[in-house]
Amino acid sequence: MAPPDRSTSSLMLADIKVLAGLFVAWKLLLLCVAYISPGPGYDTSTTLLLLRAQSAQSENTLLEDLAKRLASKLVRWDALYFVSVAQRGYVFEQEWAWGWGYTKFVGLVSNGWFGASDSMVPWLNSTSVLPGSSLSPLYAQAYAGVLISHVAHSLSVIMLYKLVHQLPIMDKKQRHATAFLAASMHIFSSAGMFMSAPYSESLFSMLNFAGILIHARIPWNSPLEDYGASSLLSLLSSGACFGLATTVRSNGIFSGLIYFHHVYMLLHSRINIRTMITIVFIGLSAMMILSGMLFPQYMAYQDFCARPSDGEPRPWCSRTLPSVYSWVQEHYWNVGFLRYWTLSNIPLFLLALPMLYVLVGTGLIAPTLNIKSSALQSKHASVYILCLALPQMLLALLALTTFHVQIVNRIATGYPIWYIVLAATMVSPMDTKRSDKTATSHRADSSIAKIGSYMSKASTQELMFRGMFMYSIIQGGLYASFMPPA
């Protein structure tokens, strides 16, 4: 047995440390932007909600005032619904537009970790450094959401870094550089403040990346009859992750398109008992993903159709496919095919156009990445990468034609392929020309120098990277001031 590649392991560990430093610095910058943002904005919903929920007690300490101000800047737009539903459950029909899995998880974290019942956290009580805390349970939901966003985002950065090393693309040096840049871009994601606020984007990214990372362990060039116990377990585990992601955001169901690779490999497989067993496991995995969509719908159906509180079922109950989510989007937000195509929304389409271009363009380019293998294996690898890219291309198509197009700038962050393709085109072929001396000193480079070394010449990818950085800063200030776009 060959000894482990210690240099590669130490290099990866050094990269992760640099990424952690970048992550902390970026998050602190965003939180500072949020904190200093002026006024309540044009909408006072946050102020009214938090004031009504706050218990009347003694004067706040300085630390409590700082914490409350930061919370008021992060609980904006949909976050109002997220923290409210996490605290009291679903009451109004339109609230079912927000992910059941996310609100339930925020509620669990706030109750289990923060002790949301009467005091914000166990260590914020009358005997703590913050005596007489007047922060209400609603603040606990807000800080639980903020905690989840930061932890989930940090984990998804590491998952994306590791995912690149598992994909059948490029050579070893290129993969290493691509992994670092892709993970860096995910830190500076166009979702910006939405990855720090009590929003579902970070948790969705973590779960979706986890599903893809686990799925990537399955041999991409193996016929179905060669799937062993580990591959079958990876199928079920990835399906579970995608299913949980779908409870957080409904577009998680698009990840089921990744399983089209197994359909393709079925054409190159013999039909026998082992193949049939694998097909059953693929079906079970797909059912897990589908259940992530159906289970919340079932819960809503029980409340509004089977046992309506006012005795009258809602109109959507009699539909062939009684989906509360589709009804709410259509009835309350006028979401539907080409409904968003109005003259007044042209600025929003222009705002989303770069991301739509990136999602579709990188999805089409992905199968042609520098795959190093035999002709047949190259074809299998290209199909595999294409299947990984299909969810992001479908997302772009639906954003363009069906739902509020501007949100694609934040929900695209949960799809890894566009990061990887942008990073790969930035490092290739330059990375293959790096000398051994450069590679040896790689871990000693500063984070800014490492990123800058792959941007020595102007390119579309560089402009995209810079654009994401600038957009996130500007968007963060607008978000914290309760100003569009959201």
UniProtKB/TrEMBL annotation:
GO terms for molecular function: alpha-1,6-mannosyltransferase activity; GPI mannosyltransferase activity. It comes from Aureobasidium subglaciale (strain EXF-2481) (Aureobasidium pullulans var. subglaciale). Its EC number is 2.4.1.-. Belongs to the PIGV family. One of its GO terms (cellular component) is endoplasmic reticulum membrane. The lineage of its organism: Eukaryota, Fungi, Dikarya, Ascomycota, Pezizomycotina. It is a multi-pass membrane protein. GO terms for biological process: GPI anchor biosynthetic process. It is found in: Endoplasmic reticulum membrane. Pfam families: Mannosyl_trans2. It is an enzyme of class 2 (transferase). This is GPI mannosyltransferase 2. InterPro entries: PIG-V/Gpi18.
